Amino acid sequence: MSHAKPNRRQMLELCISRGLLIGGAAMSQAQLLAFWQNAEAQSHKPTSAEVLGPFYRKGAPDVKNLRAAGDPGLSLKVSGRVMNTKGQLVEGAKVDLWHADHNGLYDTRGYRYRTQLKPDAKGVYAVDTVMPGHYSDRPAQHIHYLISAPGHKTLITQVYFATDPFFEGNPEKNWNKRGIAANKELVLPVKLFETGPSTEVTFDIILEKA
Hints:
Blueprint: H1 8-17, H2 29-41, E1 75-84, E2 94-98, E3 114-117, E4 124-130, E5 142-148, E6 155-161, H3 171-174, E7 187-188, E8 191-193, E9 198-202, E10 205-207
Parallel strand pairs: 1-9, 1-10, 6-7
Antiparallel strand pairs: 1-4, 2-3, 2-5, 5-6, 8-9
């Protein structure tokens, strides 16, 4: 006589009842089951999308230092990881990154302040550049991103800086001022270092599967 294969819930209940799955604190079977299922259901939220903008150029070189000797502007390091919604490494990802120079101008003929990076074996990307300037069409400092990877949806987004005067010292309140950002999570905290001086931001990218 064949027996039906237990479903996922039944398997969890069986593990709990046999002591194979236990809570660190006193929990009832129902509480432990709910806790486990909730923990499993949690996932990394996909990164919010933004507009592409008019200044994207294909064919940017894979360079990690966009700041040439003598370039005006505050030194900026941008780094992060490319992951999926389960927090796993995304293989074969490409990260296009571009922004205006210190004066708010884009290089539309060449590839100054433009790169297409391939994250390393741990999914990490990093680039040294300068803090982008302001310009009238989009008055907040920002960096453009276009990220693609096999089996995942292509993501177009932008990041902003919590230190930008545009946010009036309160990005929590003013992140959507003039409709500038799609999500407050795209306004990044900025680390400031005395040496240089220099700044640093971390932007982890979460891709959805196609």
